[in-house]
Amino acid sequence: MKNTQDVDDKILLIAKRIITGVSRRNGLTVVFVEEGDDLCKLNGDDTYRERCCTVGDTIWVGFYKHTPSMAIGFFHELGHVLSSKRKGFIPYDHPDYKKYAEAVAWMYGLAEASKYNILFTPESLEYAAKEYKTYYKR
Questions:
Q1: What confidence tens digit (pLDDT) does each residue in 17-57 have?
Q2: Is the pTM of the predicted complex or chain greater than 0.70?
Q3: What's the burial of 88, exposed, middle or buried (CB within 10 Å: 0-12/13-18/19+)?
Q4: How far apart are CA 62 and CA 7, in angstroms?
Q5: CB of 100 within 8 A of CB of 86?
Q6: CB 48 within 8 A of CB 39
Q7: Which residues of 115-137 are buried (b: 16+ CB within 10 A; e: fewer)?
Q8: How far apart are CA 63 and CA 135, in angstroms?
Q9: Where are the domains of the chain?
Q10: Do residues 72 and 127 touch, judged by C-beta distance below 8 A?
Q11: What contacts 59, CB < 8 A, 6 or more positions away?
Q12: Please, are residues 70 and 64 in contact by the beta-carbon 8 Å criterion?
């Protein structure tokens, strides 16, 4: 019987392959950040711990304790890219811009995941809701 770490490593590898494929299909570059790598040395580990970020056509996927959290974080960032191409988006100077942009990114990202038959567990969706709620504290 394989140990749990071997199984977790294989699940992570599969998730990274799926994320890479989805990125390519959307004309994006994905960078997987590993704890302690050059990006972490430059920007600090906390910049990428349990986080993804997007600049232009590149999504940086940080390191996570749980692979489903990494995957849902990636699809959220993909949602930002997809929604930014949408016409009629709320003006950047609107006082609720950030809350609106985050909600739309979650919706677009989850919709995109479903196109690939990726459905997230209730725990992953609770993680997403918790992340979204952080924008109400700002």
A1: 999 999 999 999 999 999 999 988 999 989 999 999 999 99
A2: yes
A3: exposed
A4: 20
A5: no
A6: yes
A7: eeebebeeebeebbeebeeeeee
A8: 22
A9: 4-136
A10: yes
A11: 23, 28, 29, 30, 31, 52, 53, 74, 77, 78, 81
A12: yes
